[in-house]
Amino acid sequence: MHKSTVFLAFIVSLVLVSPSTSDDVNPTVKSDANPAVQSDTKPSTAIKSDVVANYRLPRDLIPMHYDLTIFTDVKEPEFKFDGIVTIHLICIQKTRDLVLHMNNLTLAHDSITRLVKQGIANPSEELIPVQPVSHKYDAENEIYSATFETPFITNQEYTVEIAFNGVLNEGLSGFYRSSYTNRATNDTEWLATTQFESIDARRAFPCFDEPAMKSTFTISMGHPKHLTSISNMPLERSMDIPSKPDWVLNVFQKSVPMSTYLVAFIISNFTYRESKPSKDFNDVKFRTWARKEVIDQVDFAAESGPEFLNFFERYFNIRYPLPKQDMVAIPDFSAGAMENWGLITYRESSLLYDNVRSSIHNEYSIANTVAHELAHQWFGNLVTMKWWTDLWLNEGFATYMAAQALDDKYNKPGSKHSWKLLDGEALSNILLIFPLDSLSSSHPVSVPIGNPSEISQIFDAISYRKGSFLIRMMNKFLSPKVFQQGVSKYLDKYSYGNAEQDDLWASLTEAGHRAKILPKDLTVKRIMDSWTLQTGYPVVDVVREYGTEKNTIKFNQKRFLALPDLKRSDSSQCWWIPLTFTSSNDKLTSSKPIWLPCDQQKSELSVHDQHDIVVNDQMDLNAGLEDNDWLIINRDMNALIRVNYDDKNWDMIINQLISNHTKIPTLNRVQVIMDVMEFSKLNILKYSKAFDLMSYIHKETEYLPWRSALNTLYSMDNLLKRTGPTYEYFQAYVRNLLATQFSTQPEIRSSLEGYEERLHKTQLYSAACHFNLPECVNRVQAEYKAWKQSKSLDSYVIPADMMYLTYYVFVLSSQYPR
User: Fold this and answer.
1) N or C: which end of the chain has fewer CB within 10 A?
2) Could you tell me the residue ranges of all domains in the chain?
3) Could you report the per-residue pLDDT of 12-24, keeping only the tens digit for each?
4) What phi, psi does 236 have (nearest 5°)?
5) Using CA atoms, how far apart are residues 464 and 336, in angstroms rounded to an integer?
6) What pLDDT was estimated at residue 15?
7) Nearest alpha carbon to residue 68 among 173, 206, 212, 180
């Protein structure tokens, strides 16, 4: 604290009042959800309190630093912890109330002390104990408050000490216990670990548990000496505990300012592998932890992690701010992973990679998860949302940046096999977004959060996948270079602080205008508010006027809804849509967007910008497009839209696919497959149109268009099951589509080097066997029999990519007793 600060001193004993003696305590709350219930203090209803009446904490007192010490007994049957937290505060606005979060913690008698020096003239003045006039616990909102007769004074600093205890729970949240079986001894091994996002730090220690209330932390962990503890920061020193000779107290370095949900600590008997520093990397110590039996399976993650950290440092132009980075595989973990600053925790399946048994899907999933969590160290940790409404910024950016990091790792110059990860990630997002966000029950990516109990509901595909795709869309219409400049400036400006989406929009707008990428009167906020603040996505109807000199194209946008009885969308919904084009006439092909605006906002644009804006829902090409040239809107799926064309243009697209499909970009082949099948399902187009287009697929050799096609075919398969002859005709139709390409695939045990080649082989085998293509079923059955008849089952290895399929198909075949 600053030397000039004036101190007052109070020692205050606080405990909760029994429900039978006070109306201030919710009588329906179980005792294990409340602090200890005993006190001589009488609650007062005559004293008015300034305590906030809802789920948010007041901003009268702001935490600056926590000194947190916890002693943890990680063994049966105790599973308990005792702690003391010293919170250094500053008073922003005069108040008598100390209001903070806690849940499932017990406060010991005389456990709370408020300290401040009493007077300026005599800094050594004696400390005087003062009891509160009232206190209460709001169990519903998990808020503990104490009201003092003497107020906290504006601009003065205070220290509050709180002693508490709790039990390591089994709920995989807060400070909880996990276990596994030691294979060597067959004993159960216990560990204590944390999961605080979004509002569970309060289960481990009393705190101001909101993302905007950032603070520094000094964490100390006491535990038996045979165990190891780690936290967000490196170990500073270890001390013996005289009263417990078999215990140790580990004190960790003071942290950078961070939100409570990013605090983490683990007590275990895990071991680690330390990564070799990568080229041009800073001095970050990078370790990957796991139980001893599986430590050999961390090598892939331990190798990839520093590469991704290096990439993000270069991309954001900001050094990783901590001296170390740990990644830990937890046996019992509710999420895939958690981005705790400097101590990332993972579900074991999200971090461990077996060189023999793990498939290409496992490799991609682990690499993607590691990259996602490391991206959070900047987007989410260094700069954090002010409130959970902007969760999508955290998760959408981490999802998008993970794909960028993987692309950097696997698509090095001169690489023999391209992963096409960015295109694959775009398709993965679309396949989830399109069905979910076409429902009336969907929600915007930016969701106003009321009670914190609602927060968990928005950790979904809309926040992650739609958020990621919208960020990709911004990268496309601003250009990668300008987008990167805007993001880097945003992170630098708000480092160690909090921001909201408008702050990001401002940084990107400034970068876009400086580079003259955005029209002068158009801002990123104006564009992106139409995408983030409303539900759904648009379908754009494109109608060309043939036989005219102007070559006019008319556009109409409306929300796309998937259910037939809800097709009539809200006419007031509209989006700022970046239109890009590709055509059989190269003169028209361009990735520079022309903006299709919201109707009510057209008149606000200056004449200077009209060449970049579609006016009156139509555009005159004048030259460059003949009547017999096909036109595709949304080049490379740059925007989150579906596109429907007039019949003639659809027919020209179909003819091009049949004659030479490679003339149409890969992602546009993906999109026309998805769109034509969906429009047919809703009776917007005839099914004959869809099947005509799909007829080209037997010549398609790329993974992504086949993935799009199979996704629609599997959907139709589910609809047509149990329809008798119709289903049989459909299966025969699909077998005919698959036969040509399947015949080009190597045998099951043949290895392929390329990522896409391996994925394509897996998906074609899966589809061909699903639709009972005889050649596929015969191959799988032969492979399984050869494995069963081999002299050593361990030496006859079925490739991991094909192992599940081989077992699955053989179990379903008639030659295996069911």
Assistant:
1) C
2) 1-269, 273-378, 385-533, 728-812
3) 222 222 223 333 3
4) -95, -45
5) 13
6) 24
7) 206
Q: Nearest Cα to 81, choosing from 234, 259, 265? A: 265
Between CA 260 and CA 194 the distance in angstroms is 12
Residues with catalytic function? 373
Looking at the predicted structure, is the pLDDT value of residue 575 above 50? yes
List, in order, residues 6 or more apart from 481 with CB less than 8 Å away.
Answer: 515
CA dist 193 → 228, 269, 491 (Å): 12, 12, 30
Sheet with 134-138: strands ordered across? 95-101, 143-152, 134-138
Q: Give me the CATH code for the 385-533 domain, please.
A: 1.10.390.10
Whose tokens are 């980075």? That residue is 325
Q: Determine the CATH number of domain 273-378.
A: 1.10.390.10
Query: Between β-strands 577-583 and 228-231, what pairing exists: parallel, antiparallel or unpaired?
Result: unpaired
Q: What is the largest CA-CA distance in the chain?
A: 97
Select from 94, 150, 121, 110 the least CA-distant residue to 12: 110
CA distance 240 to 235: 15
CB burial of 265-290 (b: ≥16 within 10 Å; e: otherwise) equals bbbbebebbebeebeebeebebbbbb
**Smallest Cα–Cα separation from 529: which of 557, 500, 555?**
500
Cα–Cα distance measured from residue 333 to residue 194, given in angstroms and rounded to the nearest whole number? 9
How far apart, in whole angstroms, are the C-alpha atoms of residue 581 and residue 177? 55
Q: Which of 342, 340, 310 is nearest to 234 (CA)?
A: 342
Superfamily (CATH) of domain 1-269: tricorn interacting facor f3 domain (2.60.40.1730)
3-state percent helix, strand, coil for the chain, nearest multiple of 5: 35, 25, 40
User: Is 395 labelled a binding residue?
Assistant: yes
Q: Are 1-269 and 273-378 equal in CATH topology? A: no
Residue 346 makes CB contacts below 8 A (sequence gap 6+) with 327, 328, 329, 330, 333, 336, 337, 338, 369, 373
Our measurement of the distance from residue 264's CA atom to the centroid of its chain's CA atoms, rounded to an integer in Å, reads: 18
| Range 545-557 burial, b when 16+ CB lie within 10 A, else e | eeeeeebebebeb
The strand order across the sheet containing 228-231 reads 174-181, 188-195, 265-268, 228-231
- Its pTM stands at 0.89
Summarised one tens digit per residue, pLDDT across range 423-457 is 999 999 999 999 999 999 999 999 888 777 788 88
